[in-house]
Automatic annotation (TrEMBL):
Keywords: Membrane, Transmembrane, Transmembrane helix, Transport. It is a multi-pass membrane protein. This is OFA family oxalate/formate antiporter-like MFS transporter. It holds the Pfam family MFS_1. It comes from Evansella vedderi. InterPro entries: MFS, MFS_dom, MFS_trans_sf, Proton-linked_MCT. Coiled coil: none annotated.
Length: 405
């Protein structure tokens, strides 16, 4: 039961961390209360995501040394304290620092820990378990939306930060206590056979950075995340401008994307256990490219708009489930925290790349560019083989988790 308790802790943590995606609910209440400009308020979210991505590097390295429980506990405390302090903010700088920097650091310190612990406990089901772990993050914004709306309406925006700070602190710290690493040599029952799963080589971060596979995977992650966030971040605007929908009808895409995002993390993670990580990734990039090319035509009605954003949300969930898994497959689990922390910077950059591109070119041109990036990612995937060292000719001598390799 130990490993399922780890999964429970991971889900509790990720749901609370994923509530950050409900930030848009705070924009108008903050504008109404303090008279700030919308553009200035929205920067808070960008600062949060950037800080979150950066701190995954620090947290990854630290949790590789002292374990996931303590690092996730520290992260939960930082996240809770950041929001509690944000409840007292009266200037934009205070909001940026308390919510964006301290709160974002708390998310980053915590995010890698449940992922790393889960893939270590489930070497035979890495794709599925990684998908389940990150699905909580995808659902967090959806689950917390009604809670945040209720608190804002009943207690005001500042008090909402206060109450959420205590909720996050308590639940994340509680979930962190369930995170433990498995024994060094883990014996699991796989099918009808007892197979001792022991990786023959654990790549250090330096060794990972010396492999060309890392850079191909990093850019593949960047292209996939950028494509997903390009649609997710502007789903309502796309519906209004390209499908000629009303604002209310276009807004229905937000909930649909969240559901398909979570489903993609679990189902595509499970599929990768069966057909291989790279095979699954190539399917996802292919689907994304097709949808992006279609959306670039601008000829959408409501059903096709919903279908398009659903496929993109589903595929985006797959990217976030598969890249931590493939990092563990290729470079081992001993240093997965620090290794995936570096891999995750591709996602952090993608959060800014999409909006930057949209500010330069129209939606339709951005979709064509994104589709081309996805096709390039498929070519890159065909160039990747499992990295090898002299001391480790095969990462998995007894089990093949990457059938396409």
């Amino acid at each position: 039961m130990k490993r399922w308790l780890v999964v429970l802790g991971a889900i509790i943590i990720q749901i609370n961390l994923g509530a950050v995606y409900a930030w848009s609910l705070f924009n108008q209440p903050l504008i109404d209360k303090f008279g700030w400009n919308r553009e200035d308020v929205v920067i808070t979210f960008s600062i949060t995501i950037a800080t979150f991505a950066f701190f995954t590097i620090i947290a990854g390295r630290l949790q590789d040394r002292i374990g996931p429980r303590w690092v996730a506990t520290i992260g939960g405390l930082l996240l809770g304290v950041g929001l509690i302090l944000a409840s007292q903010a009266t200037t934009l700088f205070q909001l940026y620092f308390f919510y964006g920097v301290i709160g974002g650091a708390g998310i980053g310190m915590t995010y890698v820990c449940p992922l790393s612990a889960c893939v270590k406990w489930f070497p035979d089901k890495r794709g599925l378990i990684s998908g389940i772990a990150v699905a909580g993050f995808g659902l967090g914004g959806l689950i917390f939306q009604p809670i945040i709306r209720f608190l804002i309406e009943s207690a005001g925006v500042s008090n909402t930060f206060l109450y959420l700070g205590f909720i996050y602190l308590i639940l994340v710290v509680l979930g962190a206590q369930l995170l433990i690493n498995p024994p060094a040599e883990l014996e699991k029952t796989v099918g009808n056979n007892n197979i001792a799963i022991k990786e023959s080589k654990q790549f250090s971060t330096k060794e990972m950075l010396s492999s060309y596979q890392f850079y191909l995977l990093w850019f593949m992650f960047l292209f996939g995340s950028m494509s997903g966030l390009l649609v997710i971040s502007y789903a309502v605007d796309i519906g209004v401008e390209l499908a000629s929908l009303s604002l209310e009808r276009a807004a229905s895409a937000v909930m649909i994307i969240a559901l398909f995002n979570a489903a993609g993390r679990i189902l595509l993670g499970r599929l990768s256990d069966s057909i291989g990580r790279l095979n699954t990734l190539m399917i996802i990039y292919g689907l994304t490219a097709i949808v992006m090319f279609y959306m670039s035509t601008g000829a959408m009605n409501y059903p096709m708009f919903i279908l398009s954003v659903s496929v993109i949300g589903f595929s985006f969930g797959g990217f976030l489930a598969l890249f931590p898994t493939i990092t563990a497959d290729y470079y081992g689990t001993k240093n997965m925290g620090s290794n995936y922390g570096l891999m995750y910077q591709a996602y952090g950059l993608s959060a800014f790349a999409g909006p930057f591109i949209i500010n330069l070119i129209p939606f339709t041109h951005a979709f064509i560019l994104s589709a081309l990036f996805c096709l390039l990612a498929i070519i890159m995937a065909k160039l990747i083989v499992v990295p090898k060292t002299k001391s480790a000719p095969n990462l998995f001598p007894k089990m093949d988790f990457n059938k396409n390799n």
